[in-house]
Amino acid sequence: MGFAGIYVLLCTGLNILMGYAGQVSLGHAAFWGLGAYISGVLTAKFGWPPVVALAASVVGTCVVALAVGIPTLRLKGHYLAMATLGVGMIFHTFFVQFADLTGGPSGLVDVPSFSVGSIAIGTTLGNYYFIWAWVAIGLMGALNLSQSRMGRALNAIKGSEIAAECMGVDTYRYKVIIFVLSAAYAAIAGSLYVHSINFVAPATFGFMSSVLLLTMVVVGGIGAFWGPVIGACILSLLPEYLRAYEGLEVLLYGLILVGVMMFMPNGLAPLFSNLRLRFRSVNRAEGGG
Fold first, then answer.
1. Beta carbons of 65 and 43 less than 8 angstroms apart
2. Does the pLDDT of residue 24 top 60, yes or no?
């Protein structure tokens, strides 16, 4: 469940970008990897405290995301999707080729676990609570954003950029801000990931990882608050039940995605909401009876 929390955090950031602002990204795993490598390198090679390295990974990733977002977010639609795909490929190549820093294809080892002062968080239970505490913070941030003035501006951008600009919304500035914010979520998830398993390799952050994150958001429900939680928990825990059928999870991911797009285009979140409302109505009816 700890890794499910990491995916929830990743998908929450991606949902802010895609669901709130309507901007497509096919390279979101690049920022996940960047956060993981910055935090891992600073602690394993330079002896930084993990908590300080986490903060540095967020700052570093946000700076890179800003540099990437300023030119790419002038693009729209499939042009933006292809640009983010290219960014993901560039970063994956960097993780592989700069072996002296990243460990190359074999990965970076001996990454220390999290600790706050003299308190170690390296146990399985400690990591679990630490990760889900960050998930709670991330979800509260997303909720506050959706109800804020910026959230209303993003909703206008998602509906129609031209109409939003006519209303006086600085669409380009808001898109850059939200792109950087989504990268910050990914950086935190990356740091949590690398200090939980004490190892990081570039294979984790390839194109298929970006596709998996996109699938989780779509299955849960793009733009729905609980969508990232539902999609990430279902699809991240699925491989645990398919260990005996190696490779089958990729086929199942595809079938789930096609099924959701055909029969539940708004994702699973509305289904869960309807079930919750029905459950409440049944309880009220029984209580009244």
1. no
2. yes
